[in-house]
Amino acid sequence: xxxxxxxxxxxxxxxxxxxxxxxxxxxxxxxxxxxxxxxxxxxxxxxxxxxxxxxxxxxxxxxxxxxxxxxxxxxxxxxxxxxxxxxxxxxxxxxxxxxxxxxxxxxxxxxxxxxxxxxxxxxxxxxxxxxxxxxxxxxxxxxxxxxxxxxxxxxxxxxxxxxxxxxxxxxxxxxxxxxxxxxxxxxxxxxxxxxxxxxxxxxxxxxxxxxxxxxxxxxxxxxxxxxxxxxxxxxxxxxxxxxxxxxxxxxxxxxxxxxxxxxxxxxxxxxxxxxxxxxxxxxxxxxxxxxxxxxxxxxxxxxxxxxxxxxxxxxxxxxxxxxxxxxxxxxxxxxxxxxxxxxxxxxxxxxxxxxxxxxxxxxxxxxxxxxxxxxxxxxxxxxxxxxxxxxxxxxxxxxxxxxxxxxxxxxxxxxxxxxxxxxxxxxxxxxxxxxxxxxxxxxxxxxxxxxxxxxxxxxxxxxxxxxxxxxxxxxxxxxxxxxxxxxxxxxxxxxxxxxxxxxxxx
Length: 506
Ligand code: LMR
What we know:
Residues 144-291 form the Lactate/malate dehydrogenase N-terminal domain. It catalyses: (S)-malate + NADP(+) = oxaloacetate + NADPH + H(+). Its main location: plastid. It is found in: Plastid, Chloroplast. Residues 294-464 form the Lactate/malate dehydrogenase C-terminal domain. The protein is of the alpha/beta class. It contains 17 helices and 17 strands. It has helices at residues 2-11, 14-26, 30-49, 72-80, 153-164, 185-197, 212-215, 236-257, 271-280, 295-309, 343-346, 350-362, 364-372, 378-392, 442-461, 463-466, 499-505; strands spanning 94-96, 143-148, 174-179, 203-209, 221-224, 263-266, 290-292, 316-317, 320-322, 330-332, 337-338, 341-342, 401-406, 419-425, 433-434, 486-488, 491-493. A seven-stranded mixed β-sheet has the order 1-4-3-2-5-6-7, sandwiched between helices. A three-stranded antiparallel β-sheet has the order 8-11-12. Helix 1 (2-11) crosses helix 3 (30-49), helix 5 (153-164) crosses helix 14 and helix 10 (295-309) runs antiparallel to helix 12. The radius of gyration is 24 Å and the shape is globular. The protein binds (2S)-2-hydroxybutanedioic acid (LMR). (2S)-2-hydroxybutanedioic acid (LMR) is lined by residues 269, 296, 365, 375-376, 482-485, 494-495. (2S)-2-hydroxybutanedioic acid is lined by residues 269, 296, 365, 375-376, 482-485, 494-495.
């Protein structure tokens, strides 16, 4: 029903009506009509899948106070990606806070005269006596965590794990700084309400906003999830440019206002190149602090090996994903282990390892979209949790994890100045070291080179955003895809647009 209504309204769009009638009058070919319907339907799905508000302004509420006005220039900047204005203004923002202190807040004042902050959200307006529980609890200093795309599906899974204490630990109070777009601001408010209703003891502050220069203030972690998915007919180069501008702006904002040692995890695709753009725009933050999420691919690879070997997946270790989070990524079965033994000893079907296994990991995201009707969200959130935990807890002896990191100084001869997934270890201090002695055979070397070439080509496309001169984009005849992309009727489709594929098959 929803789909029908959406299609009807989009077909009423003069552009689509024009295109449809042109197709009908000029071509009797079914293919042309199908393609036009496909594009229009995808546009309709876009409308259906994206929450919109008629006004970017929040309604007044007893629980909600706005700190400032919304400026037209800001609307344009977020919706149309114009360069950011000078950051003297603030945007619609809900600030939910207690003061940052070495001790987490505990109890409201007994006489009922609860102090409130001027800008705050609901229960987070309460000012607590930070000393009250000092004697019974030993809390760490509160950390600030920014999440972009905070009203999206991935974040909806992630935020509640962060707030529960299962990521940073049961003695780590956190503040969540939620970044969204103008049109998602009401959804962000809904997220804040659900966080409020969850009564998480460790969640001490929730801020929502649309300006990265405000939201990223003093953040210790930045989880950059929000990005535009590639739409129908959109070239990969265009996606690189559109999302690249978002990550250039967010890099600048982090550089200006975040903690100087902020750890940045880029999830929005194409995440490796977005991470490169982000770090190039944040010269004051160590390049080593930037990561592109390939942990989802590592988890997928472990699952496939466990399935084939008939073991539980915790028996699979030393799993490296090399390269780009795309269909050129290389899941390394040469160095991975099952029950401590080389995979090739346990799984003797080497043809399956080279072809079936590798492809199943590379294209897992696409298969999932076909089944689910949308791209991965819960497993992506879990893999973000895993990626963070790998940095804040010591890596088990002899094991490693995969993450996309800056290549300068790498021991594998990968071109410098890229963000490339490689095997890493951590002492649990938020930092990592590359594992240096991983064996690379000819098979791996050739595959890794292909992913490296793809990243070098992507980098050329975004030279204007990394300070490397004029962009030259030639991604070659084989336009490699993100793991979640599929092709229908000649339209490359990903993310929510892929719902159409599901509907078509019913
Ligand atoms: C995934 O690997 O599931 C996602 O990166 C797919 C996508 O393109 O959203």
